[in-house]
Amino acid sequence: MDSLKKLQIWFVTGSQHLYGEDTLKKVDEHSKEIAKHVDAVTTMPVSVVYKPVVKSSDEIYEVCQQANITQNCIGIIAWMHTFSPAKMWIRGISVLNKPLLHFHTQYNVEIPWSSIDMDFMNLNQSAHGDREFAFMLTRMRLNRKIVTGHWKDDKVVQQVGNWARAAAGWNDWQGAKFARFGDNMRNVAVTEGDKVEAELKFGFSVNTFGIGDLSKAINEVSDKQVDILCEEYADTYILADNLGKGKPGHASLREAARIESGLTSFLADGNFKGFTDTFEDLHGMTQLPGIAAQRLMNRGYGFAGEGDWKTAALVRAMKVMATGLPGGNSFMEDYTYHFDPKNEMVLGAHMLEICESIADGKARCEIHPLGIGGKADPVRLVFNTAPGNAINVSVVDMGNRFRFLVNDVTVVKPEHDIPRLPVARVLWKPLPDMKTGCTAWLLAGGAHHTCFSQNLTVEHLEDFTEMAGVEMIHIGQSTNISALKNELRWNGIYFGNRQNF
Ligand code: MN
Known about the structure:
By secondary structure, the chain is of the alpha/beta class. It has 15 helices and 19 strands. Helix content is about 40%, strand content about 20%. A six-stranded antiparallel beta barrel has the order 11-12-17-16-15-18. Helix 8 crosses helix 10 (about 250-270) and helix 10 (about 250-270) packs across helix 11 (about 290-300).
């Protein structure tokens, strides 16, 4: 993925003319210093750009309009160092269409007890200036992120960075194109959804292409391209014996490489950010894209199987959000359970298509039968995933709204080999515990398809869903089934009645 540093967050400080030039000059200096610091911290993935202090309704309107039309501006951080009467903000905030973070900080750490006087008070008023501003945002029913604390506190600035990651994912979705080869897997419900509503809400479009369009691109791949890719496979992975040159499976490896190369050029030519396919519709193709989907995901493309465009788009957004962080993000499916009462856990995998970004060590490249779909045996990467904290995220279409689900999970080290199930796999324990976590997921209607993430947290997803103005259900350490039932009922009323978000 490209670095996010080319994206900008504007640091906008609000004030007014009341205080006179000297105070405003100080406000300006302090704002510059804070913006520079926030820009430079290692947890800030994007560029933070200082903007001159705004002191009037016209200036506020102008900076909001400029943010809207500046392509690489993905959001605004607002801070009220002094008092900035908030009726001045109505016009600007009303038109702002980029995410907003309200940074509730102040310039000084401590109260200067021996020297504090009225000049100090005129300058350092965010404790009440930010309240005036926040009232207006609340009165306007505006979703925004609030980060409270001193700007030099790493934990505080990290929250700003997390929000910036969510804003980068959100920005990436605006105008994004996803290709859907074939339709939904027949009769499956949860992978369906309203693509018109998705484009209205999320900004990305999903359009269908005949599998013939893809097989044409695959057929145009040269033997030379296939040679190069096969060499790359051999260099990068532990290649199964039967796939090497002169071995019986080598033709299948070449075919897998041809599929990857064809898919790559199809996606690049059409400027797509992800795709979905289905094993029920592979006319003109010899095998289901396995290693191709795995490697394309690793390069940042969104993917999900069986026509699941919602999860494909989600995988893409989460990959953008996680740019530069250690660990990976992958399409995932709850595969099967281990119900040993002393050691309950979920085996997560898919038929083939798990992203190698979550592989623990070097992946093996193997070929095995699939058992469904009636096509040739597909080549795939096989690996385990390292233990640690992770999340599973699902997006479902509730008919009148989209719902995101986030479940905190603990990935555990596999204690057993599973030699007869040659797929990439993850073992995890859902929080708060297996029974509550799974029950909660089912009550909330979560899909079997998810995006599994080793490097994002519920905070990223909460910020992201607030930017989108959609529902998010978090299943974690404090989840309680009775309370969750009420949350789902109340959310039904809240989101069902919302008109303007
Ligand atoms: Mn599936």
